[in-house]
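tokens incoming
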């Protein structure tokens, strides 16, 4: 009986491991962007930083993944939400973020640190 329970626990643990690793690969993590716009994903939190000359501003919020790799962002401050990029999608193949900003489609590449 102990062998059956042990074997069953091992199988359950393996399924849990497989599902955990699969779910982790479907969302962005780390920093994306360039000199003017940087987007950082940490768990379910996101921060967007805009740099213009010597000034910078950061907007924070949370995100979750929607259908078709859409990134659904909820900003903490509603005023900043109007100025922040929208229409985000995660390009898993290239590990990049695609979004619209001021009517322009832009791609934010992963920043290696």
């Amino acid at each position: 009986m102990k062998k059956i329970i042990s074997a069953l626990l091992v199988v359950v643990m393996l399924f849990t491991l497989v599902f955990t690793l699969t779910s982790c690969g479907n969302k962005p993590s780390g920093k994306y962007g360039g000199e003017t716009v940087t987007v950082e994903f940490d768990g379910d939190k996101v921060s967007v930083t805009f740099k213009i000359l010597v000034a910078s501003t950061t907007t924070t919020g949370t995100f979750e993944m929607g259908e078709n790799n859409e990134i659904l962002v909820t900003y903490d401050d509603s005023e900043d939400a109007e100025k922040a990029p929208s229409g985000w999608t995660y390009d898993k193949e290239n590990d990049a973020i695609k979004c619209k900003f001021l009517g322009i489609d832009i791609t934010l590449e992963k920043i290696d640190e």
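note: Residues 94 and 109 are 8 Å apart (CA to CA).
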